[in-house]
Specification:
Blueprint (H helix, E strand, L loop, with lengths): L9 E3 L2 E3 L6 E5 L6 E6 L3 H19 L3 H30 L3 H21 L6 E3 L6 E8 L3 E4 L5 H15 L3 E4 L5 H13 L7 E3 L4 H10 L5 E5 L2 H14 L2 E5 L4 E5 L5 H12 L10 E7 L3 H12 L22 H14 L3 E4 L14 E4 L6 H4 L6 E7 L2 H9 L3 E2 L1 E5 L3 H10 L4 E4 L14 E2 L2 E2 L4 H6 L2 E8 L1
Parallel strand pairs: 7-8, 7-10, 8-9, 10-11, 12-13, 12-18, 13-16, 15-16, 18-19
Antiparallel strand pairs: 1-2, 3-4, 5-6, 6-22, 11-21, 14-15, 17-20
Helix pairs in contact: 1-6, 2-3, 2-4, 2-5, 3-4, 6-7, 8-9
């Protein structure tokens, strides 16, 4: 197994920076509670240097031929694939997810860089019809230096989505991944550096989140902010961005409904639901959480779901037979515990789990709650953990009302073998992404984003590239 690196650094102006008296953040293994290393945090002077470097890098990178940009992004993808076996254990040690999930996440970064390497060549404009002798053009141009903030649940994947798209568009980028998971994100950044991306075009910083976000957003150098994280933090950053009228992409929290109709393929639905709900210990913004099950199959669904969940093996993500690891930090365990206890006190039935796991790590058992009352806090607040909530419904309209009643709208799912019903549910769900008879809704070539308080804008697909471009009309007479 690859040893965890102890010389953690950040990357500014073409140089890797170490401690040198800077404040540090302790990196903790969530499965064991042991200290892995200390991470140096950027100070205000470091961020000022990064901003000036990003301004220079934008002028260099935007002028680079698109085929050269694409070739370098493909090289990043190649290096990530070559190093995936070394990076994945670091991700598991920092974040907790099972090793197979960690490697899958690392490889998804390569797919993202490959996709945007090609999409960079398709940032087309258009020519408008005008009388002879006149020309009117619509151009797409890179918006400028970008500040990108990504969270701890998918640290390398979400950083790569932002970095690959920004670089493909011709922007420079200052990436600030989470302090909890530095080694894996540093390793991805090393691939970017080794692929020949200019030193000023891509930089990586760690620091006190509020200080870093305020400092970067306040700078006139930064033209675009991309953030993935919680709704409250997203709203806070939007207020900061308003002063400079910054372009933003916000991928915020969700509380995904799953509508299970009587005509579904029940066994297949149960297998998919039990496997997907507890991926990454439920710490996924699109994790299926609120299960609304039609009355005719409610008892069979709850029984079958609980049986499958009770067989999930929980343990250190480095153990080959662990299907679910710990929660990523010690803040999550008491938060989940409080939500479950509130639901239980208000009448919910605990069919599986419902308690902390043993040992020193941040473990919580895979949990299934049935007959959860609408008054339970967990029905309104995203648990972001290994908790499934099940309620019965009678009619289509009732299911839609329950699914859409929250201010969030990131992802929604439905299971039915009726084609007309599938069309109706896809139209009716107030979300940015819909999964019909599956939970696989994230792909490099597909837009990923939400509506309502789950944010706006998309990452992935041509829409993800377009978010880093500005539109310019040119009229020649």
């Amino acid at each position: 197994m690859t040893n965890y690196p102890t010389d953690l650094k950040f990357y500014i102006n073409g140089h890797w920076r170490s401690g040198d008296g800077r404040a540090v953040h302790r990196i903790i293994n969530p499965a064991t509670g042991e200290k892995l290393a200390e991470l140096p945090l950027a100070n205000a002077a470091d961020l000022d240097e990064a901003l000036l470097s990003a301004a220079r890098g934008f002028e260099i990178w935007r002028a680079t031929d698109v085929n050269e940009r694409a070739a370098k992004l493909h090289k990043v993808a190649d290096l990530i694939r070559q190093r995936a076996d070394a990076i994945a254990p670091w991700l598991t040690m920092e974040q907790g997810k099972p090793l197979a999930e960690a490697k899958g996440e690392v490889l998804s970064c390569a797919a993202t860089f490959d996709y945007f390497a090609e999409e960079a060549k398709r940032s087309y404009g258009r020519i408008l019809v005008r009388p002879t002798g006149q020309r009117s053009l619509v151009l797409k141009q890179p918006i400028g230096p970008v500040a990108a903030f990504s969270p701890w649940n998918f640290p390398v994947s979400l950083m790569s989505k932002k970095m690959a798209a920004a670089l493909a568009a011709g922007c420079s980028i200052i990436a600030k991944p989470p302090e909890e998971t530095p080694a894996c994100t540093i390793a991805i950044m090393q691939c970017v550096v080794d692929a020949g991306i200019p030193a000023d075009a891509a930089q990586l910083v760690f620091g006190v989140p509020d200080m870093v976000s305020r400092h970067l957003i306040a700078s006139p150098i930064i033209r675009k902010i991309s953030f993935t994280g919680s709704v409250p933090v997203g709203k806070h950053l939007l207020k900061l961005c308003a002063d400079g009228v910054k372009r933003t992409t916000m991928e915020l929290g969700g509380h995904a409904p799953v509508i299970v109709f009587e005509d579904c393929n029940l066994e297949k639905t149960l297998d998919l639901a039990a496997a997907t709900k507890y991926r990454n210990a439920g710490q996924i913004c699109i994790s299926p959480t609120r299960f609304y099950v039609q009355q005719g199959i409610y008892e069979a669904f709850t029984k079958g779901f609980a049986e499958r969940v009770s067989k999930i093996k929980v343990g250190n993500g480095l153990d080959i037979d662990s299907a679910m690891g710990p929660l990523a930090n010690d803040r999550r365990t008491p938060a989940i515990e409080a939500l479950v206890e509130d639901a239980r006190a208000k009448g919910a039935k605990v069919l599986a789990g419902g308690a902390r796991g043993g040992g020193a790590g941040n473990f919580y058992q895979p949990t299934v709650l049935s007959d959860v009352p609408a008054s339970a806090d967990v029905m309104d607040n995203e648990p972001f953990g290994p908790v499934a909530l099940i309620r019965p419904f009678a009619t289509f309209d009732e299911a839609i009302e329950q699914a859409n009643r929250l201010p969030f709208g990131l992802a929604g799912y439905a299971f039915t073998e009726n084609g007309r019903q599938a069309n109706r549910i896809a139209d009716a769900l107030e979300v940015g992404m819909v999964g019909l008879n599956n939970f696989a809704i994230s792909a490099p070539d597909a837009p990923f984003g939400g509506v309502k308080e789950s944010g706006f804008g998309s990452e992935g697909g041509p829409e993800g590239l377009d978010s880093y471009l500005v539109t310019k009309a040119v009229h020649q007479y």
